[in-house]
Structure formats: C-alpha cells, structure tokens
C-alpha cells in the first residue's frame, strides 16, 4: 500500500458519496485552523508567563534560604564565641578565595546599613555620647556613613577584581555564586529564553545601577548584546508584506547582515541611488506574540501582588502595556523622530544634535527607512579619548538635549541607552549627538511638567520646603527624601548640606564608587518603600525614571564629569519662570525677575568655575 502525505490528502476533495457533490476538506478545516493560529500566540505567551512565575518563585526561595542560612551561621558563630572558640579558624585560611571576599562584602554592607540606620534615626535614644551636642552627633554619624560606604566600595572592588582574575580560569557560575548573582542569572536566562518584551524589561533593570546590587548590573548588562536576530529570509518576507516587494527590487544595494539588533527589531544598511539608508525591520511574529505577552505578564504580576502584599509590582505592567504597541508601530516612531528634530532646532541645539531623516515613502508599521548617520556610542570612552573630544562637553550636551525635552516641549525620548545615543566630532572638535530609536516617547501634560520643574529647581538650589511641596503634589509625602535621592542619584543629606552652605555643589570626600555604594545601601534597605512609592507616583513619572536611569548610566561611563543636577535645574528654573512671570502684578514680576536673574547668575558662575577646574585637573 502506497503511503500518502497529509498534505497530499488535504489537497484532494472529500466525496461524501458517488452521487453527492464533493466537499473541500480545507474549507471545513479553515475556521478551526484560523482559531488555532489565533490561540497560538496566547499559548506561547502563557508558556513564557509560566517561566516568569517559576523564575520569580525560585528567586524568592533562593533569598529565603540564604536568609535562613545566614541566620544559622550567625547563631553558630555566636555559640562558638560564647564558649571561647574563634569561628574564623573554621574558615578557609586562604584569604584570596572568592568566598572570603564575598563574606567581606556582606559584612561591609551590614555595617553600612547599621550606620545609615543610626544616621537616619539620629534623635533616637542610645545614639548619643555624653557631652556631645546634637549637631556634633549628626556630623559624627554622617562621617560614619561615608566611611562605611567607602569600605563597602573598596570591598566590592576587591571582589570584582578577584572575580575578573578567576574568570580566566573558571566558568562564570563558579566565579560569583552570591545570592544576588544567582538571582540575576535566573532573570537573565528568563529574558533570553522568552525574548522580545522580556529582554526589554531586563535591559531596563540593567540600567538601575544605583538601585540594584552590582551583580545584577554585571549579569543583566549582557542583554544589551544578546538581542535576537531574524534570519534574512524572514527579513525579506516582512519587507515584502509591508512594502509589496522584496528588498532586492526596492533598493540598489541591501546588506543581508544587520549592523544592529535589539529586542524589537534589527537594522540593515542599504542604498537608494546615492543615498545611504538604515532600514529598521521588526522581528517577524513579534507584533502577534506581544499581545499575548502583555496579557500573560499582567496576570503573572497580579499573582505576585496577591502572594506578597507588601510588594506592589503593578506599575511595571502599567508602564509597559500602553507603550509597547506604540513601539511596535514604526510610523509612530517616525512621527516622534520628526517632532524631536523640530524641538531640537527650536531649543537652539540643531547644530549640536542630529535626528536621522525619515523616508516616508518606504516607512510602514513594521519597516522604517531613515538616512544613515555615522557615529560612536556615548559610552565608547576609548574612542572619545582617541578623538580628543572633551568628555565634560559631551556629558553636558547629552544632559542638555534631554532636559530641554523634559522641561520645554514635554515630548521625551524615554529610552536613551548607549545604543541609541551616538556622538561624532564636528570640524571645530566639538561633539555632535546623533539620536536613534524614537519608538518610546512620553508626552507629559503641562501641569505635571511644571510640578516636575519646580521639584528640580528646588533640588538644585536645595530648597527643602520646595522639595517637600513638589513631592507632595506628585503624591509622595513622607518619602520625599527617597524620591529626591532616586531622581538625583545623590544621598539626601547632601541636599541638607547644600541648604546650609547655599552652594550648587556639595563638597565631600567620597569617590563615585563609594557614592554609588551608599545610595544602593539606602535603596536595598528601603526596597519595599521604593516599590510602594512607584505604585503611588503619577504614571507619567515612570518613564522619566527609566530615562534618568539610562542617562545616569551614560554619565557614569563618562566619569560623571558634569553636574547634571545643575544642567537639569537650569532648564527647570527657566520653565518655572516662564510659567509665573505673567501671573502677578508689576511689583511681583520685578521681584520674580530679580530672583530668576540671581539664580541664573549663580548657575553661570558655577559653570565657569567648574569648567576651569575640570580643564586644570
């Protein structure tokens, strides 16, 4: 008997009898096949959601087990100490082992947390020394926090150095086996396996380098280079489906190998006549599967919310759900790009920042064609130094472009990670920015923009009452120091110091690594409060947090050569003045103008002095 393939059978009509009309089996199956194809993305998204829930539960279990293990070890050490046994003798005598350095980091982290608790509770009983005044006690405790932060940063640096040294001989999993590293690897593996939306969330987490432990940043940062790529045959099909013809018929040249790939799309280089263009092509099938991903992600987050009442993660869904469909519409991205280019010209930054021109005749929801623009990543420090470009000028320019978007137009690029912010050298040796990927924008309303501007003006001039008032308008009352620290990436006690010294920059002896360690200490200590606060603040603010995280990452890579608080404060101050100068009588306008001029003169003097100091250093 000759076997027939299923396709051969389906290609033949099915006869009900020799005398009846023939029935096409395909027509009978089509409705069921259509339903199956509609269900497929939801089923696939459900599998990804199950992986998400599994990963979250495993991470929580890891932390709980580690907590009990630490408690057991502490009790054992206390018991040994009580009978006169030195517990350190039971540890490895090899002080160069990774385990030893990990324990040192844990001890330093606990010491920092203890110092921070004493500092934030300065008026609590038991914190004073006989004969010591309150101001002396606060200063002593502040210095203790700084010293503990320095020691933690040093311990983290030693651990990282030992891990880098060992990584040449061992696998990654054997180098860093701390609880944070294990949890980060679980999340990274989840993002890689699920792809798409999950990679984008993982990349966002990788930018939270002042909130998450270093192990998370080190592990998750690999997601920026792990974005999926679509096979060329699928690229051809997407272009044909969108533009009606294959790329070889539409372009004079088309490079089959992408020059860049991200979580949602990849970019190819082509030529239209003599014009070199960049073609952004969406990963095939992503538009269909993303809907199921969002639905499944929402259910997963709600389940976690119910299991753990003290943590509220709903803001993650509230941030992603309305924005992902917009990011998947490349015509929407093209309109964002043109609006951004118009604002940059109006802001007087047209010669310093370029947005690639959109070719509208070849742009559709899944294909975006733009002029090809040369440049280097904003975090490519080696290329910046080789080109002789001033890092401080580049940092100020980057901050100026994005702060002008926030406080002037309110139309904000919310995804300025290093792959989207490029630079190149102009003929006068000054840097020029090139902005890519305009899919994720936020249009904030004028009331929020003005409140946010008042907050940043107050942060710059260290106006404590102004900070409290603005934070209260944003729904944050008791936790206003935490919100200020999250926005500025600076400890709030520095704002307190500047409120006394009337300086735009605090003088302190900490280096950037110790600074970061101190802020991470506060962030981890008040993680529950941070998550609760993120659930309270206006939804418009969530994407601003993401933008700030991305810009902060770039600024740190450049060595933080500029005071970005002052750059933001300058634009915020001008916005507040523009909104208030016509709201009062003549005498009020004169006073308002004089106050504004004094602040702008302080800013200008600060810029001149800091520039001179930077050039001399």
Largest sheet: 5 strands, antiparallel
> Which stretches are poorly predicted, pLDDT < 50 over at least 5 residues?
1-22, 92-96
Q: Which percent bin holds the helix content?
A: 55-70%
Radius of gyration from CA coordinates:
28 Å
What structural class results from the helix and strand content? alpha+beta
Strand portion? 5-15%
* Averaged pLDDT: 80
Q: What is the distance, rounded to the nearest whole angstrom, between the alpha carbons of the first and last residues?
A: 89 Å
Number of helices, counting only DSSP H or I runs of 4 residues or more: 25
SS elements, strand count: 13
Q: What overall geometry do the principal axes of the alpha carbons give?
A: globular
Walkthrough of the structure:
With 617 residues, this protein is α+β, with helices and mostly antiparallel strands. The protein has helices spanning 6-11, 25-82, 98-120, 134-167, 172-175, 179-194, 197-206, 214-220, 232-243, 247-250, 286-307, 314-320, 324-327, 330-346, 381-387, 391-409, 446-461, 464-473, 480-488, 492-501, 512-525, 527-534, 540-557, 564-580, 586-616; strands at residues 14-15, 22-23, 253-254, 260-261, 265-272, 275-282, 353-354, 367-371, 376-377, 411-413, 421-425, 431-435, 441-443. α6 (179-194) runs antiparallel to α7 (197-206).
What's this entry about, in short?
This protein has 617 residues and is an alpha+beta fold. It has helices at residues 6-11, 25-82, 98-120, 134-167, 172-175, 179-194, 197-206, 214-220, 232-243, 247-250, 286-307, 314-320, 324-327, 330-346, 381-387, 391-409, 446-461, 464-473, 480-488, 492-501, 512-525, 527-534, 540-557, 564-580, 586-616; strands spanning 14-15, 22-23, 253-254, 260-261, 265-272, 275-282, 353-354, 367-371, 376-377, 411-413, 421-425, 431-435, 441-443.
């Amino acid at each position: 008997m000759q076997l027939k393939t299923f396709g051969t059978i389906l290609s033949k009509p099915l006869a009900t009898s020799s005398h009846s009309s023939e029935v096409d089996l395909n027509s009978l199956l089509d409705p069921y096949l259509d339903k199956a194809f509609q269900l497929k993305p939801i089923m696939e998204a459900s599998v990804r959601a199950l992986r998400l829930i599994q990963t979250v539960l495993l991470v929580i279990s890891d932390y709980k087990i580690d907590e009990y293990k630490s408690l057991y070890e502490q009790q054992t050490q206390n018991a040994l100490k009580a009978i006169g046994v030195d517990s350190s003798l039971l540890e490895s005598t090899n002080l160069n082992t990774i385990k030893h350095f990990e324990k040192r980091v844990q001890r330093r982290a606990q010491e920092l947390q203890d110092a921070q608790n004493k500092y934030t509770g300065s008026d609590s009983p038991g914190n004073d020394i006989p004969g010591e005044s309150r101001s002396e006690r606060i200063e002593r405790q502040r210095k203790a926090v700084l010293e503990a932060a320095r020691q933690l940063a040093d311990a983290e640096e030693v651990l990282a150095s030992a891990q880098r040294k060992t990584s040449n001989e061992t696998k990654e999993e054997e180098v860093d086996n701390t609880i944070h590293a294990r949890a980060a690897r679980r999340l990274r593996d989840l993002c890689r396996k699920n792809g798409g939306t999950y990679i984008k969330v993982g990349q966002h987490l990788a930018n939270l380098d002042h909130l998450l432990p270093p192990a998370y940043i080190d592990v998750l940062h690999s997601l920026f280079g792990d974005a999926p790529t679509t096979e060329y045959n699928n690229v051809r099909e997407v272009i044909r489906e969108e533009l009606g013809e294959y790329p070889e018929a539409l372009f004079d040249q088309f490079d089959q190998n992408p020059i860049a790939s991200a979580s949602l799309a990849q970019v190819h280089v082509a030529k239209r006549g003599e014009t070199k263009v960049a073609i952004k092509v969406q990963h095939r099938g992503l538009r269909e599967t993303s809907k199921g991903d969002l639905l499944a992600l929402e259910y997963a987050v709600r389940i976690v919310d119910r299991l753990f009442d003290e943590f509220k993660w709903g803001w993650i869904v509230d941030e992603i759900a309305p924005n992902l469909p917009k990011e998947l519409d490349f015509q929407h991205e093209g309109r964002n790009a043109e609006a951004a280019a118009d604002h940059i010209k109006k802001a007087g930054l047209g010669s310093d920042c370029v947005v690639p021109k959109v070719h509208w005749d070849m742009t559709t929801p899944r294909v975006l064609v733009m002029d090809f623009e040369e440049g280097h990543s904003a975090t490519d420090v080696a290329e910046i130094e080789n080109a002789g470009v001033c890092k401080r000028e580049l940092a100020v320019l980057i901050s100026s472009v994005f702060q002008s978007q926030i406080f002037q137009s309110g139309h904000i690029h919310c995804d300025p990670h290093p792959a989207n912010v490029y630079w190149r050298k102009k003929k006068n040796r000054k840097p020029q920015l090139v902005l890519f990927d305009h899919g994720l924008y936020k249009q904030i309303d004028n009331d929020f923009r003005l409140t946010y501007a008042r907050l940043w003006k107050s942060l710059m001039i260290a106006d404590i009452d102004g900070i409290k008032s603005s934070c209260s308008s944003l729904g944050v009352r008791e936790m206003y120091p935490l919100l200020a620290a999250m926005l500025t990436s600076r400890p709030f006690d520095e704002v307190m110091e500047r409120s006394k010294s009337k300086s735009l920059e605090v003088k302190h002896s900490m280096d950037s690594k110790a600074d970061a360690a101190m802020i991470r200490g506060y962030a981890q200590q008040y993680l529950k409060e941070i998550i609760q606060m993120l659930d309270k603040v206006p939804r418009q603010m969530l994407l601003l947090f993401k933008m700030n995280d991305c810009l902060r990452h770039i600024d740190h890579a450049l060595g933080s050569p500029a005071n970005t608080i002052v750059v933001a404060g300058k634009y915020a101050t001008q916005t507040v003045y523009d909104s208030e100068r016509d709201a009062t009588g003549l005498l009020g306008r004169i006073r308002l103008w004089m106050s504004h001029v004094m602040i702008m003169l302080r800013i200008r003097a600060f810029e001149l002095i800091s520039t001179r100091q930077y050039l001399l250093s």
